[in-house]
From TrEMBL:
Residues 107-239 form the LamG-like jellyroll fold domain. Keywords: Carbohydrate metabolism, Disulfide bond, Glycosidase, Hydrolase, Membrane, Signal, Transmembrane, Transmembrane helix. This is non-reducing end alpha-L-arabinofuranosidase. The keyword Metal-binding does not apply. One of its GO terms (biological process) is L-arabinose metabolic process. Residues 972-1037 are annotated as: Disordered. One of its GO terms (molecular function) is alpha-L-arabinofuranosidase activity. It is an enzyme of class 3 (hydrolase). It comes from Candidatus Mediterraneibacter caccavium. The lineage of its organism: Bacteria, Bacillati, Bacillota, Clostridia, Lachnospirales. Residues 980-990 have a biased composition (Acidic residues). Residues 805-962 form the Alpha-L-arabinofuranosidase C-terminal domain. Residues 1007-1019 have a biased composition (Low complexity).
Length: 1076
């Protein structure tokens, strides 16, 4: 049963009992044989002269407070005396400590407490309720409205919170042996869940902490009130739990009835606003019914009769739903072009590694046909290469030319177990030709961590210069490209400098800072300006393998190692090659097994036992002897080095790339060829980068900031229907929060330069490995994200990633489920991508198919006459509209409602749509968690229909959990003008013939004025379509336990029809539309 329904049923039974109706009371009478003091080792109610005194019969446990943000204060709610109040953290964490309070891995225990979570608490952050010290674990924390235990060393969801700013009673009970035990959570007297666990509980006595983690920086501090804390050395029964809850049940019931009144009051206000909006339209029965429901609701608003208030709330919701179903209108202004987009905007992130994750055949050196067809079907406008993290150490010159002459590349996380060199079969030319053949645009990620300004300039020449030109002298890289079979330039215009290079951690396993944090000033300075990076005791590497295992001597003669962050070798034909050094001379010291050896210029002059080495300062190679000329390091000895190297940063690389492009354009201009663009973006996603570039006068060297607004792991999962819904709604809310973060960066950048843009080259639901990530849920998440980032000006928007292995897990680069195309091994190797694979597309790929195949290149403004919210606080609808050169109008619409179809009128300003053709594409699936498989690749597929519009406005039926793209064809005499004079008289046939047949998504606007009810009066009261900012949120009615007794059951049956989804409605002011 829904939590709200349980709450209402209990509330009704309680009120009936108060009014003398023969209903069994909600709270159970405690058996005379049961004593709530049995096994009670600690009890604090924070009242009396010593509020921290233990009131248990055997008061051996002691408690104390620490931190300035926690104190004993009088409660603001009647029914509670003093409470333990936690404010927002100030310096050190605030907590209550019960010394030696618990052994979670020993015998049975129960912890009972009342909590009131403050609205000021960040709901998306893990906030600790119960925590152990020492080796103990987090017994209970709250995140995204869910309570979770970590007692078993794994996150286990236990149940839902009733909300913020309300009191709720929590009891956590553990029973059983360390190897087989149960954990049960009760909320307001009712069992939320019981989980069978088999390990992880720490068998040791620890302190028990209330309100904070043992490691202050690990998680968020609790904010709110705590009261009536009880510790038991036994497992409480449900009867005993209900008895404890009954002590303050009246507070909960009062909160609940007040919550229903507040909800009804807010709904009345929203309903009145909608009625006022539709006053200029002809009367429709649905508005009359809504007006009557409003009047009835007002009459009972202050009633103490819970059944009457609840019935009025239910009736008003139904009337509002019915009215909105006929009046919701999207108004499109084809004259207001907000931005232009090109064919490359809706793209994908791809990775060269492992033969393009099985998609590339290294024998034929071609993309596999089945994969190519799926790529073509999705129509990706752009492809990011050579990937994200995996691109950071990519040396492009080693990936061109004959396959047998290429050098294995280095993974961005090169020191993970089993990670060695990667064959670059799907090299630069293969990727560039693939995108050209599929009408995609190549977006290139340049490896700042590996390359330098000279190497980057060579890359621009190789990609974009005409044969016959040689912008920087030295090797004519356009001729090299032609010799490799690709005479025409690739004309790459978008470049990202590194990937996520602000993300620190352990070099080789989690960090993407590489050498930049080893220069004076740290990572930001190193990324922007480069500098001298110095290293001490760093293990050496092989040319094609940077794993630590490659740094050990094997005892053979003539061994060669490399200094890890030496610069890539300069072009031998370059004018300054003679003066180039890969590392700084005089800085190199080499150690074998911890013993320093001696550098010599020539090993040929060394004796057999001399512990010497030589350095090739052009490549950073370190050479050892053969046992005749120079000693051989003993087998098993690790080779380490001290050295320094002068590296180039973003500024130097950007200058070199732009200078080369200027020379290419000068050549093109002189030879009657078109000039070309170049856009260079930073991957250091911080405010510090933006500010420092401005302060140093380098704004003109970057065109925007690469931002990867991944969602974070949503709460819930695919285990139950409720947990799926939790995942669904939480993912959407997280996406909205990330869009807000991106908007903050846009505001910051454009404070200095209005031309700066955000660049969304990776996005998606990340890091969940749940199957929900492969489902329709992710498709809707991506569709909404695309709409937001189009609005914010991203030149291309790319989901991560194109293809990955079909699995239930993840690798060092993240979960495999997020790929839009899944590679299923049919004998192939997921270690290197060789062998046979089959492929299928996820629903997310269909989003790209719909947008790339049917959307205009001019984004135009549109607005809904009101906004509709689901009970999670997320907007039900997101909308993006456009037009093309022929005057066709497009509307992309996400409908997040899970229950039933919805209708939307589409009105184009200045145009009568009667007789026009409307095409509808819809992606919904049987459920919001439906996913495709290799055997059933069309479980979620695009449904297409076409019909003639029968009225001034079009009407589209939106399936639940759907993404829909509507194309309204231009009038035959309209051309590309996008306008048409309206008919002088609007037809008023109350029963026009419905076009499209029974199964069509296209419907007639209905009776009365075909302009439809709910027509906005001017601009006021409309909402910019697709916007999710400033959405009002409504709190669900908190829950108590299910009532017991036949009479209560009867009432429950009557009211169990309460809708699970709360729809919020509001008008949004015109200034927001203009601002956006």
């Amino acid at each position: 049963m829904k939590r709200k329904e349980k709450a209402l049923a209990l509330l009704l039974s309680a009120v009936c009992a108060v009014q003398g109706v023969g209903v069994l009371p909600v709270q159970a009478e405690v058996s005379a044989a049961v004593s709530l003091e049995e096994g009670l080792t600690g009890y604090w109610n924070f009242d009396g002269g010593d509020p921290m005194a233990n009131l248990a019969p055997e008061a051996s446990l002691t408690a104390s407070l620490s931190g300035s943000a926690v104190s004993v204060q009088p409660s603001e709610d009647e029914g509670f005396g003093n409470v333990l109040r936690f404010g927002e953290r100030q310096g050190e964490s605030a907590k209550m400590t019960v010394a030696s309070g618990l052994n979670s891995g020993g015998g049975d225990f129960s912890v009972s407490l009342w909590v009131n979570n403050s609205p000021a608490q960040n709901g998306s952050v893990k906030t600790v309720v119960l925590q152990q010290t020492g080796n103990g674990r987090t017994l209970l924390y709250r995140q995204n409205g869910q309570y979770v235990t970590y007692i078993s060393a794994a996150d286990v969801a236990m149940g839902s919170s009733t909300g913020s700013d309300v009191w709720e009673h929590l009891v956590l009970v553990k029973t059983g042996e360390p190897s087989a035990y149960e954990v049960t959570l009760y909320v307001n007297g009712e069992e939320e869940s019981t989980k069978d666990l088999s390990s992880g509980a720490v068998n040791a006595v620890t302190d028990l902490l209330i309100g904070a983690h043992k490691n202050a920086g690990d998680t968020g501090q609790f904010v709110g009130d705590v009261d009536e804390l009880r510790l038991y050395n036994r497992a409480l029964s449900q009867e005993e739990v209900q008895a404890l809850y009954a002590e303050h049940e009246d507070v909960v019931l009062e909160q609940q009835i007040q919550g229903i009144r507040d909800e009804l009051s807010a709904l009345i206000q929203r309903a009145e606003e909608l009625c006022e909006q539709g006053e200029e339209d002809p009367a429709v029965p649905e508005r009359d019914a809504l007006t009557a429901a409003i009047d009835s609701a007002k009459e009972v608003l202050e009633s103490t009769d819970a059944s009457a208030v609840t019935a009025a709330l239910d009736a008003l919701k139904n009337a509002l739903d019915e009215y909105m179903d006929v009046s919701l209108t999207l108004t499109v202004d084809p004259q207001d072009v907000t931005r232009e987009i090109d064919d490359g905007i809706f793209g994908i992130n791809h990775r060269y590694a492992f033969n393009g994750y099985g998609s590339f055949d290294p024998e034929t050196m071609q993309i596999k046909e089945e994969f190519s067809q799926l790529y073509t079907q999705a129509g990706f406008g752009s492809l990011r290469y050579p990937g994200g993290t995996i691109s950071n150490l990519f040396n492009w010159k080693d990936t061109i030319g004959p396959k047998e002459e290429r050098v294995a590349q280095i993974h961005g996380f090169y020191n993970n177990s089993g990670q060695h060199g990667i064959e670059p079969n799907f090299g630069l030319d293969e990727a560039a030709e693939f995108t050209r053949e599929h009408d995609s645009e190549l977006v290139y990620v340049y490896a700042l961590a590996r390359g330098d300004a000279d190497d980057a300039a060579d890359l621009i020449e190789y990609l974009n210069a005409e044969v016959g030109s040689n912008p920087n002298g030295g090797t004519a890289w356009a001729e090299v490209r032609a010799a490799n079979g690709h005479e025409a330039p690739y004309n790459v215009r978008y470049f990202e400098i590194g990937n996520e290079m602000n993300q620190g951690g352990a070099d080789g396993t989690t960090a993407q800072t590489y050498w930049i944090d080893d220069v004076p000033g740290g990572a930001l300075t190193g990324y922007i300006n480069g500098g001298t990076a110095s290293f001490s005791g760093q293990y050496v590497v092989a040319k094609d393998d940077w794993n630590q295992t490659a740094s050990y001597s094997d005892g053979t003669a003539d061994q060669t190692f490399y200094l890890r962050y030496a610069r890539v070798e300069r072009d031998e034909k370059a004018e300054d090659y003679a003066s180039f050094t890969a590392v700084n001379k005089g800085s190199v010291k080499i150690y074998a097994g911890g013993t320093q050896w001696t550098e010599v210029p020539d090993l040929e002059t060394a004796g057999a036992d001399a512990q010497v080495y030589s350095v090739d300062y052009k490549t950073g190679a370190v050479h050892f002897g053969d046992g005749t000329h120079g000693a051989i390091p003993q087998s098993g000895q690790q080779i380490t080095a001290d050295y320094s190297v002068d590296r180039d940063g973003f500024v130097q690389i950007s200058q070199a790339m732009r200078s080369t492009m200027d020379q290419i354009n000068e050549y093109n201009s002189g030879n009657g060829l078109a000039e070309k663009e170049i856009h260079i973006y930073s991957s250091f996603e911080t405010e510090g980068f933006v500010n420092q570039m401005h302060e140093s006068g380098n704004d003109d060297l970057y065109d925007g900031l690469t931002i990867h607004p991944y969602s974070g792991t949503p709460a819930g999962g695919s285990s139950t229907e409720e947990s799926r819904k939790t995942f669904y709604y939480d993912a959407m809310l997280k996406g909205d929060a990330k869009a807000a973060d991106v908007e903050n960066y846009v505001t910051l950048m454009q404070k200095y330069d209005q031309t700066k843009v955000p660049v969304i080259s990776e996005c998606g639901i990340f890091r969940s490995t749940d199957t929900m990530v492969r489902s329709q849920t992710h498709a809707l998440y991506i569709a909404r994200a695309i709409m937001e980032y189009v609005r914010l000006g991203s030149p291309y928007i790319q989901k991560h990633c194109l293809v990955d292995w079909y699995s239930e897990g993840a690798d060092s680069l993240g979960p495999t489920q997020q790929a839009v195309i899944q590679a299923v091994s049919t004998g192939g190797s997921t270690a290197d991508g060789t062998g046979e694979f089959r492929f299928f597309s996820t629903p997310s790929a269909s989003v790209f198919e719909m947008l790339n195949g049917s959307f205009g290149d001019q984004v135009i403004s549109s607005s809904l006459n009101y906004e509709q919210q689901l009970d999670s606080g997320v907007d039900q609808y997101s909308v993006m509209t456009s037009k093309d050169a022929e005057g066709n109008i497009y509307a992309a619409i996400v409908n997040l409602n899970l229950e039933g179809e919805n209708k939307m009128n589409i009105r184009i300003e200045g145009q009568n749509l009667t007789g026009r053709t409307m095409e509808v594409q819809s992606l919904s699936g049987d459920s919001f968690y439906a996913e495709n498989t290799l055997d059933h690749p069309d479980n979620v597929k695009i449904d297409r229909s076409e019909a003639e519009i029968g009225g001034t406005d079009a009407v589209v039926t939106l399936a639940p959990h759907s993404f829909t793209v509507v194309k309204i064809h231009a009038a035959q005499d309209e051309g590309g003008s996008g306008t048409e004079e309206p008919d002088p008289e609007i037809p008023t046939d109350p029963d026009p013939e419905k076009p499209g047949g029974e199964d069509s998504d296209v419907e007639d606007p209905g009776a009365g004025d075909p302009a439809g009810p709910g027509k906005p009066s001017g601009a006021e009261g409309s909402q910019n379509a697709g916007s999710s900012a400033d959405a009002g949120k409504d709190t669900d009615v908190p829950v108590t336990g299910e009532g017991r007794g036949l009479a209560m059951f009867a009432i429950l049956c009557i009211f169990s029809g309460m809708g699970a989804v709360y729809l919020g409605y509001r008008r949004v002011k015109t200034d927001k539309i203009k601002n956006e």
